[in-house]
Amino acid sequence: MKESKSKIANDPESVADRLHSAAIHLLRHVRRQDSATGLGPARLSALSVLVFGGAMSLKQLAAAEQVKPPTMSRIVDALQRAALIEIVGDEKDGRRILIRPTAKGTKLLHAGRRRRVAALAAQLKLLEVAEMETLFQATSILERVDRGWKEHS
Amino acid sequence: MKESKSKIANDPESVADRLHSAAIHLLRHVRRQDSATGLGPARLSALSVLVFGGAMSLKQLAAAEQVKPPTMSRIVDALQRAALIEIVGDEKDGRRILIRPTAKGTKLLHAGRRRRVAALAAQLKLLEVAEMETLFQATSILERVDRGWKEHS
DNA sequence: CGAATTAGTTAGCATAGCTAACTATATTGC
DNA sequence: GCAATATAGTTAGCTATGCTAACTAATTCG
């Protein structure tokens, strides 16, 4: 016998392939909740970074969203006109701006996030306890992978 | 004592929240490989559905991509002009078109997919065997969740 | 102080989403 | 069997989101 337990097709390439597909399909489903926010994907995502990451400059926000400054400039403009964020001038550096979510923006984002998470949670409730445990452990591993990823690029 | 083992914060809401975040971050990283394909995200994704799902009509392809027919019509037009797909008239129904990937399109998609998966696999190679095993089991669970999801909506 | 660098914006282009309106083909009903 | 209806796809025109190039304003450096 080769090995006692499940050496079957769990090499990195195979797991990466299936994990990749799973992530795509998972997000495709939860994303359908977003229309209720009245915001497009780019604006919603930028607002999310601000709510969870705190106030930051336009350049930092653009980098976080993997987008160029002109693109973020327009998104910020739209979010500001919708009163979801506010712009504060930087005391130390007159060129920089500090972008931070308003109470309205924070509330809207949390509501949207709750809808997404609830849609996923509704599916997870159908799982066995042991399966939930496996997914729980998987999230911890993936969070570590993500941290390692950020360091190297 | 309340419970012997890891009842700690692995309720559906909490796991859903972390899984959701993990999926976002995972895709944000692998997506950076896509510029090498020379295609935008919508075209790449539509081509992927055709390569893995086989030839289908425009309406079916639009539904698979959660997009309206006019949007898909333009994407298909661009993919055809790039010779990555070809259009065949349906024998039974003169209104329908059958869209299928060309050899060139299939090759391009697979190359792009390999780059994405390789980027993820490179990170997974740093994990312990037991962790890979956990992720492997997680993908199986998530694939089942996805199948259940498709049925109910 | 002047030159180079840096932060952000503006202009202009391509892609990607939508609805409304259109064309062409199928299906239905009398 | 043909008129009415339904369905598949396209076209037109709008908004949103991505880019590069070029600009303005502020900072930093020699």
Give a topology summary:
2 copies of one chain form a homodimer.
Chain A: H1 12-30, H2 41-53, H3 58-64, H4 69-81, E1 85-89, E2 97-101, H5 103-124, H6 129-152
Antiparallel strand pairs in A: 1-2
Helix pairs in contact in A: 2-4, 3-4
Chain A binds a DNA duplex (30 and 30 nucleotides) through helix 2 and helix 4.
3D structure, described in words:
Helices cover 64% and strands 7% of the residues of chain A. Chain A has 153 residues and is mainly alpha-helical. A two-stranded antiparallel ribbon of chain A has the order 1-2. In chain A, helix 2 crosses helix 4 (69-81) and helix 3 (58-64) crosses helix 4. Chain A is globular and about 55 Å long. The first copy, chain A, binds a DNA duplex (30 and 30 nucleotides) through residues 40-43, 57-59, 67-75, 77-78, 93-97.
